[in-house]
């Protein structure tokens, strides 16, 4: 199975302007990859791309505004990537949110927002990019689920349902790539609490949280494994 250096890869990180996604973007950009960061807020994306490109000393991050709940915007994003680079090697499904509403107070609007962002959007984006990965003969797909994709928590039932759902979607996708013998790996990340407020390299994470750099280092390790190896579900928690 053919491998590829990260410095020859094109990556797309949804939600790459902030938090965990930003840490992924920094790590991949440092390794020389071209990285598209995409989410709703153009100003946030531009600031992240500007700051990190300055650090890299060259343009490796490219910002693109889109809403993962909108099919046409997903298709336009995929078109942009394929027209510009001709391929996508790495897709990180990181965009996500929680609406804290207990089961007795849950609203349709809250439920739909969470499901459309965390699960339906991922399905639409994967479906749009998948034929290009097959044609490319290479691809990695990383889904950012959560500890809440393994255990239920009373304060965020819709979030838990969406993150359990994302793991199920990832497993089905993994089974599909096995059946069609595609050179595509599917990783599901299930982090516990990650401190996305104290992100400076030497910052002390809040009690019970882990420093965001650990998630980025885990990504780089997972991607470095041989093409026939996949770390299926990656739990990473504060001990
Ligand atoms: N931090 C934790 O403790 C933790 C633990 C486990 C899992 N996670 C998961 O990790 C991922 C990243 O979270 P984070 O902690 O880094 O929080 P974050 O900074 O809030 O990141 C979430 C990202 O999702 C984007 N997003 C939200 N709605 C979107 C939409 N409709 N279309 C496109 N992008 C959208 C946001 O950008 P815009 O607002 O610009 O759209 C934002 O950049 C999430 O999936 C989260 O569930 C986080």
Structure, described:
With 239 residues, the protein is an alpha/beta fold. The chain has a single domain, classed as 3-Layer(aba) Sandwich (Rossmann fold). 45% of the residues lie in helices and 18% in strands. The strands form two sheets. It has a seven-stranded parallel beta sheet with strand order 3-2-1-4-5-6-9, sandwiched between helices. A two-stranded parallel ribbon has the order 7-8. The longest helix has 29 residues. It is globular, with a radius of gyration of 17 Å. The model has no long low-confidence stretch (mean pLDDT 97). The structure holds NADP nicotinamide-adenine-dinucleotide phosphate (NAP). The site of NADP nicotinamide-adenine-dinucleotide phosphate has 25 residues, from helix 1. NADP nicotinamide-adenine-dinucleotide phosphate binds next to helix 1.
SSE layout:
Blueprint: E1 10-14, H1 19-30, E2 34-39, H2 42-56, E3 61-65, H3 71-85, E4 90-93, H4 108-136, E5 139-144, H5 157-179, E6 184-191, E7 194-195, E8 210-211, H6 212-224, E9 233-236
Parallel strand pairs: 1-2, 1-4, 2-3, 4-5, 5-6, 6-9, 7-8
Helix pairs in contact: 1-2, 1-6, 3-4, 4-5
The structure holds NADP nicotinamide-adenine-dinucleotide phosphate.
- What's the main sheet like? 7 strands, parallel
What is the rounded Rg?
A: 17 Å
Low-confidence stretches: none
Number of strands: 9
Average per-residue pLDDT, rounded, comes to 97
Straight-line distance between termini:
37 Å
Overall CATH class: Alpha Beta
Strand order of the largest sheet: 3-2-1-4-5-6-9
Structural class: alpha/beta
Counting H and I runs of at least 4 residues, what is the number of helices? 6
Count of spatially separate domains: 1
Give the CATH H-level superfamily.
NAD(P)-binding Rossmann-like Domain
Q: Please provide the ordered H/E string of secondary-structure elements.
A: EHEHEHEHEHEEEHE
According to CATH, what is the topology? Rossmann fold
The shape is globular
- Approximately how much helix is present in the residues? 40-55%
Please name the CATH architecture: 3-Layer(aba) Sandwich
- Bound compounds, please? NADP nicotinamide-adenine-dinucleotide phosphate
Which strand-content bin applies to the residues? 15-25%
């Amino acid at each position: 199975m053919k491998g590829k250096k990260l410095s020859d890869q094109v990556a797309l990180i949804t939600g790459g302007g902030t938090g965990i996604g930003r840490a992924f973007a920094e790590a991949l950009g440092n390794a020389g990859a071209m990285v598209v960061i995409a989410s709703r807020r153009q100003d946030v994306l531009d600031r992240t791309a500007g700051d990190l490109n300055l650090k890299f000393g060259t343009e490796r991050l490219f910002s693109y505004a889109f809403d993962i709940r909108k099919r046409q915007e997903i298709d336009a994003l995929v078109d942009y990537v394929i027209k510009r680079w001709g391929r996508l090697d790495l897709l990180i499904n990181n965009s996500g949110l929680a609406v804290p509403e207990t089961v007795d107070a849950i609203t349709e609007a809250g439920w739909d927002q969470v499901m459309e962002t965390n699960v339906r959007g991922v399905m639409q984006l994967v479906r749009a990019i998948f034929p290009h990965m097959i044609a490319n003969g290479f691809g990695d797909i990383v889904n950012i689920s959560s500890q809440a994709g393994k255990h239920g928590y009373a304060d965020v039932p819709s979030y838990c349902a969406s993150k359990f759902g994302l793991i199920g979607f990832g497993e089905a996708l993994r089974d599909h790539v096995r059946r069609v013998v595609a050179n595509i790996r599917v990783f599901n990340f299930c982090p516990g609490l990650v401190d996305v407020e104290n992100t400076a390299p030497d910052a002390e994470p809040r009690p019970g949280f882990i420093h965001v750099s650990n998630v980025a280092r885990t990504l780089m390790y997972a991607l470095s494994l041989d093409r026939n190896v996949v770390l299926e579900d990656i739990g990473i928690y504060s001990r």
